Amino acid sequence: MNMWGFIPSLFNYLSEGFIEFLNAEGNELKSEYLIPSVINKLIQTNLEEVHVLKSNASWFGVTYREDQPLVKRKINELINSGIYPSHLFE
């Protein structure tokens, strides 16, 4: 699973690129504005650089409805073992 973390200035590039994307492909229902493509362009033009942070943690997510029971179980296991809080916001 990919997890992106951005510095605030990157959102300027994303906003500008999104306007260009909408002008070029905004009427196409299946078109996608792909963040990795924007990042790759910034790297290739030496405008930004990317740092990869490694983690030994297990990642999981819900892509399909069928994923939900497994994710709920995994989150409960993390809560019960004290790794994850039972309430994120109070």
Question: Which helices and strands occur, and which strands form pairs?
Answer:
Elements: H1 10-25, H2 35-44, H3 68-80
Helix content: 40-55%
Number of domains: 2
Distance between the first and last residues' Cα: 28 Å
Q: Mean of the pLDDT scores?
A: 92
Count every beta strand, where a strand is a DSSP E run of 2 or more residues.
0
Over all CA atoms, what is the radius of gyration?
18 Å
Count of DSSP-assigned helices? 3
State the shape: extended
**Element order: H for helix, E for strand:** HHH
Q: Sheet with the most strands?
A: none
Description:
- The protein has three helices and no strands.
- The relative contact order is 0.10.
- The chain has 90 residues and is mostly helical.
- The chain folds into two domains: 54 residues, no CATH class; 35 residues, no CATH class.
- Helix content is 43%, strand content 0%.
How is this structure best summarized?
With 90 residues, this protein is an all-alpha fold.
For this entry, give a set of tags:
90 residues; 2 domains; 3 helices; extended
